[in-house]
Amino acid sequence: MANLTLVQAINLALVQEMEADESVVLLGEDVGLNGGVFRVTEGLAQRFGDHRVQNTPLDESGILGAAVGLAIAGMKPVPEIQFEGFLGPAYDQIVNHAARFRNRTRGAITIPMTLRVPVGGGIHAPELHSDSPEAIYTHSPGLKIVMPCTPYDAKGLLISAIRDPDPVIFFEPKRVYRAYREEVPEDEYTIPIGQAKVVSEGDDLTVVTWGASVFQCLEALDGLPEDVSVELIDLRTIDPIDTDTIAASVEKTGRCVVVHEAPMTAGLGAEISARVQERCFLHLQAPVQRVTGFDTIMPYYKLELEYMPDANRIGKGIRECLAY
């Protein structure tokens, strides 16, 4: 097995799926010879040719419109949007077209499209380059939303996404693109969409998170007293949410803290809190605690790290929930 970063694992998944299936094509701004702004598609244009790795104009609506058309024609497009803030112009194509074709045609046409999007803060980028809009698209039926944080999970989930008959938004937390390595099998494998991962087991409290925040949660857990036992769940898939894994954990621990980068109001933490209340009310020993970004626009890089939940804020939320 190779010791890979998130970028390398995603690149490997794309190589293997493109080799196995000629209908898989890539398109986006600078995804060709440049390999994309984060070099995730580096080397693919040289390997597969520009008829399968296509540079596009700076037109996010056009990129997604073309991808929807390719999918209808029988291809498996993998479009890339350079930063999550640029999803806005493509919203109509994603929500009103890609997400609805199965229902609109009563299942006659599906859209096997995987939309790759770097997401989140922590890299000192300018405005519109550091947001976490996953809740917006989770609210849109017909889409599947995936956000892995480790190289192993990224490869397995991306292969599953490309093979899925319906549109998948594959969010890639850019803060950990090259910050973490782990062993990734060279052979192809899949991880089911909709299945969370228990990162660490515990009995006193459940922490639910996803994306880059997994690593801040692990850091927070390291700072807790040794006699505190915390179960950490990485959702991996945001929609569909693995409610069963969350509920089983909270029924055991009786306490829950949800952590995410996005603003608190109407964030995914609110949905998870509601599901925990519905499924685990009689087991709860404390209200569900949320540790999130603030209800304001992500600030520029001087204050960026103050905005995002760090180990101190997460640890504080855990301690408050335990003390209730």
Summarize the model shown:
With 324 residues, the protein is an alpha/beta fold.
Describe this structure in words.
It is a single chain. By secondary structure, the chain is an alpha/beta fold. It has twelve helices and 14 strands. The protein has two domains: 2-184, Rossmann fold, CATH 3.40.50.970; 197-323, Rossmann fold, CATH 3.40.50. It has helices at residues 6-20, 44-48, 60-72, 91-98, 101-104, 134-138, 151-163, 213-222, 243-253, 268-280, 301-307, 311-323, and strands at residues 2-4, 24-28, 53-55, 76-80, 114-119, 144-146, 168-173, 182-184, 197-200, 205-209, 230-234, 237-239, 256-263, 289-293. Helix 1 (6-20) runs parallel beside helix 7 (151-163), helix 3 (60-72) runs parallel beside helix 4 and helix 9 (243-253) packs across helix 10 (268-280).
Task: Give the topology, please.
Blueprint: E1 2-4, H1 6-20, E2 24-28, H2 44-48, E3 53-55, H3 60-72, E4 76-80, H4 91-98, H5 101-104, E5 114-119, H6 134-138, E6 144-146, H7 151-163, E7 168-173, E8 182-184, E9 197-200, E10 205-209, H8 213-222, E11 230-234, E12 237-239, H9 243-253, E13 256-263, H10 268-280, E14 289-293, H11 301-307, H12 311-323
Parallel strand pairs: 2-3, 2-4, 5-7, 6-7, 10-11, 10-13, 13-14
Antiparallel strand pairs: 1-8, 6-12, 9-11
